[in-house]
């Protein structure tokens, strides 16, 4: 009988990040999850374009420029939060529906790192309307094929 531990797999937390307090808590939770484990954190900002904006080429261009600025701000903010705490992280921007894009990011990481454990980490919303009509966390809970951690 062997008493050796099974080989550790990489942990790949995918953190939905929009710069909010809830997203900051989710990023902190991912750092805590990764402590003492192999792997890295993927911070994902999803630029969501309202459907009405898609009707005007000028509005789309203006929104995309705004998304570029937001991406740089969020990348810097995540870097500040992770400074001196975790060096193993990446940042990516996606565009589309937030729930769908976080699921796609998790799938892409699973496909690229087949031996890794991928988990999605998001902060919970404190907005009353999200409790009624649903939030990103609710959508992920309904559809996520990977473990989901919702940080209060």
What structural keywords apply?
152 residues; alpha/beta; Rossmann fold; 5 helices; globular
Provide structural commentary.
By secondary structure, this protein is of the alpha/beta class. The chain has one domain (11-151): Rossmann fold (3-Layer(aba) Sandwich). 45% of the residues lie in helices and 20% in strands. The chain contains five helices and five strands. A five-stranded parallel sheet has the order 3-2-1-4-5, with helices on both faces. β2, α2 and β3 (89-95) form a beta-alpha-beta unit. The longest helix has 26 residues, at 57-82. The radius of gyration is 17 Å and the shape is globular. The N and C termini lie far apart (42 Å). Residues 128-133 have low confidence and may be disordered.
Please tell me the overall pLDDT: 85
List low-confidence stretches.
Answer: 128-133
Order of helices and strands: EHEHEHEHHE
Number of helices: 5
Q: Specify the CATH architecture.
A: 3-Layer(aba) Sandwich
The strand order across the widest sheet is 3-2-1-4-5
Question: Topology of this structure?
Answer:
Elements: E1 11-16, H1 21-34, E2 41-47, H2 57-82, E3 89-95, H3 98-112, E4 117-123, H4 128-133, H5 136-143, E5 148-151
Parallel strand pairs: 1-2, 1-4, 2-3, 4-5
Q: What is the gist of this entry?
A:
The chain has 152 residues and is α/β, with parallel strands linked by helices.
